[in-house]
Amino acid sequence: MKISGAQAVVESLLKENVEVVFGYPGGRIMEVYDRLHASPIRHVLSRHEQGAVHAADGYARATGRPGVVFATSGPGATNLVTGLANAYMDSVPLVAFTGQVSTGLIGTDAFQEADITGITIPITKHNYLVKEVRDLPRLIREAFHIATTGRPGPVLVDLPSDVTSAKVDYLYPESVDLPGYKPTYTGHPRQIDQAAQALLHAKRPVLLVGGGVQGAEAAAEARRLMDLLRLPVVSTLMGLGVIPGTDPLFLGMVGMHGTVAANYAVTECDLLFAVGVRFDDRVTGKVAAFAPHARVVHIDVDPAEIGKNVGADIPIVGDAARVLAVLNARLEELLAGRHHRGEALPPERDSWRSQVAEWKARYPLTYRQKEGGALKPQFVIEQINDLTRGEAIICTEVGQNQMWTAQYYKFLHPRTLLSSGGLGTMGYGFPAAIGAQIGCPDRIVFDIAGDGSFQMNIQELATAVANRLPVKVAILNNEFLGMVRQWQALFYNHRYSATCLRGNPDFVKLAEAYGAVGLRAERPEEVRPVLEQALAVTDRPCVIDFRVEREEDVLPMVPPAQPINKMLGGGEGQ
Amino acid sequence: MKHTISVLVNNHPGVLARVAGLFSRRGFNIDSLAVGETEDPAYSRMTIVVRADDRQLEQVTKQLFKLIDVLKVTDLTREDAVSRELVLLKVFVADAAKRTEVLQIVDIFRAKVVDVAENSLMVEITGDEGKVEGLIQLLRPYGIREMVRTGRISLTRAVKGKGNGR
Question: Which single residue of B71, B99, B128, B150 has CA 20 to 30 Å from A212?
Fold first, then answer.
């Protein structure tokens, strides 16, 4: 049966069980939009292509299914760039379809022409410029396969308008044949055995979990590993939620704004058991002083991550869930054998556990909310945590709002913190919350925002209103670009260059103008009632303007390129 | 240290950009890059000379291998391989005496004169790095006016196994 390229796109999406597409139409993708209109697939119209791609990203992170985004050629496509880079850095499965000028016009600087495949080579896992309509079904099949397997990531498919209007004998391939793409899922058995032995013999082991554990749906296996050996656990930003934030063995986030206990534990451990992490500089601080006494076990599905930033003594390439399942089974076997022979684990492990527990008790995260005093942003997050019982999906923007959320919200489940970890994209959180709410209509979804970040994609209020999404936006409004201001205070002698956000709108009136609910809290005692009001809204977004202490700092803080156990405002270094 | 890596890739448009872009993006320096079709027109082979220590080389190799269009990456530095480069250069010859000297040097290196002009000769040389550099060093004092190099191409010596040797 011959159908148009555009119809082939829609048929392929149906074959991939795509239920929603985020996007923004334009001239060169109209053919596809016309066919989409006639299909059962839901389309969510954003107000800017960046909003659409972040929403697709938030949908993917919250649900584990690939996000799909449409944009037209030229500016539509270039507006996806930040969102693609963001998804690439955080290994989020996305498939982006862009319109393109017709093949005969490519290279002529035609109206709304941009070389989007050229532009996105470094920020996509792979991309395609489809030149022949007969290749289209196969390339879409490959795009979804590449985006969702191995280390997930964004794939872009560029669709010239003559390709989408041409006719094709449609047949969606059952399988893909990509000789250059064979991800390794099963870890090497000998390496896994070595890792098990290292875990049993270590005196001061620490488990470090990252975003790869979420992506591989390996949280249950990570928890099982923690429980089997009663291992102290630390997490990267992207790993929060893998281990419940309330677990006594959980020490919190490691790195620049990590907890004292987590940073001390990594610095003092003799075995760092790292799963699905890439040792970002925000995690390691000064690499030479990172985990200086530790043997490192590093499990990752991407071989290029192993040894990239931190050397691995026992590298294991594989899918976190499969590797941990084999490892846990092996550990149970070894533990049973030891138990049978009356062999105990090294006695130092008990004192190590007491040591980390003591750090955790002695150096908690602290702030002081004075009664009647200025509202503390940390207090707002604790109240959100309390009212949602740690069960909400929390998106963040980037900066202080993000770090306070990581510190003070006690994530209980995987895929509940959606945050731009690698790229650090301000403006990510709100559209991501829209995507998450569409993917998870029964969940409470918050965007914890700063007044700066929220304004980077504030136009998406219209999208949220149009789709009757009860997303809550909690603006920690300090009228500053808070994190930059904090660095200026600490490292630039309080010269606040271009960080004061004069001219902010009245966020309550603005929300109302869009047809959303706008609320405001200025004093600590107003926080809870206002949040309760917000939680009662179920048919439209709600924006809450929390007027917080203007010059509150995120602490503790490891100054850039310093060892992570040397923290400002935390531990013995303060 | 200099490494010669051989990269087998899909013979698709844009693959060169993907590979070259990866080197610049990850901060690896390419000394030379030569590319052309293989015995099977579906694939191209790139010979890339890169300056890198062992750790960087491991990263280069792994990052290259992540590209969907890359099928195979081999470090030929550690293999028994034959390497060649082709160079064309124009050398200045002021008078008949100089011309004779240059012709003798060219002859000793088993290079070829491929074009003759009033006061210059165009020389073609093929060989490994030592030979090519040796000739260039000897001709430099006469004045090399223009030079173009293909960059190194390399192939391992023995065909492993039977068949088409991929």
Answer: B71
Which residues of chain B does A122 touch, with a Cβ-Cβ cutoff of 8 Å? 21-22, 25
Closest partner residue to B62 among A126, A181, A304, by Cβ? A304
The span from the CA of A281 to the CA of A516, in Å, is: 39
Domains of chain B: residue spans and CATH: 2-79 (3.30.70.260), 82-153 (3.30.70.1150)
User: Is A303's CB within 8 Å of B65's CB?
Assistant: yes
Q: Is B68–A126 a contact, with Cβ atoms under 8 angstroms apart?
A: yes
CB distance from A308 to chain B under 8 Å? Answer: yes
Q: For residue B79, what pLDDT is reported? A: 87
Phi, psi of A542 (to 5 degrees): -135, 125
Model confidence pTM above 0.90: yes
Which regions of chain A carry the CATH code 3.40.50.970?
2-169, 377-555
CA A509 vs CA A297, A456, A514: distances in Å = 53, 18, 9
Question: Is the pLDDT confidence value at B161 over 70?
Answer: no
Tell me which fold the domain A189-362 belongs to: Rossmann fold (3.40.50)
Q: CB-based contact (8 Å) between B42 and chain A?
A: no
Contact A95, A40 (CB under 8 A): no
Q: SS3 letters for A1-25?
A: CEEEHHHHHHHHHHHCCCCEEEECC
B65–A129: do the CB atoms touch at under 8 Å? no
Rounded to an integer, what distance in angstroms lies between the CA atom of residue B44 and that of residue B37?
A: 4
pLDDT single digits (tens) A189-239: 999 999 999 999 999 999 999 999 999 999 999 999 999 999 999 999 999
Identify the closest residue of chain A to B70 by CA–CA distance. Answer: A180
Its ipTM equals 0.91
Among B9, B22, B58, the residue with its CB nearest the CB of A307 is: B58
State how far the Cα of A415 lies from the Cα of B122, in Å rounded to an integer.
67
Q: Which of A280, A241, A219 is nearest to A390 (CA)?
A: A241
Report CB contact under 8 Å: B68, A146: yes
Chain A residues touching residue B59 (CB < 8 angstroms):
304, 307-308
CB contact under 8 A, A121 and B17: yes
In CATH, what number does A2-169 get? 3.40.50.970
Kindly determine whether residue A304 and residue B14, on different chains, have CB atoms separated by under 8 Å: no
Which regions in chain A score pLDDT beneath 50? Answer: 574
Give the class (CATH, top level) of A377-555. Answer: alpha beta
Is some CB atom of chain A closer than 8 A to the CB atom of B141? no
At residue A381, φ and ψ (nearest 5 deg) are: -65, -40
Maximum Cα–Cα distance across chain A = 78
Report the alpha-carbon distance of residue A226 to residue A249 in Å, rounded.
Answer: 8
What are φ and ψ of residue A52, in 5° steps? -65, -45
A103 contacts in B (CB within 8 Å)?
none
pLDDT of residue B77: 87
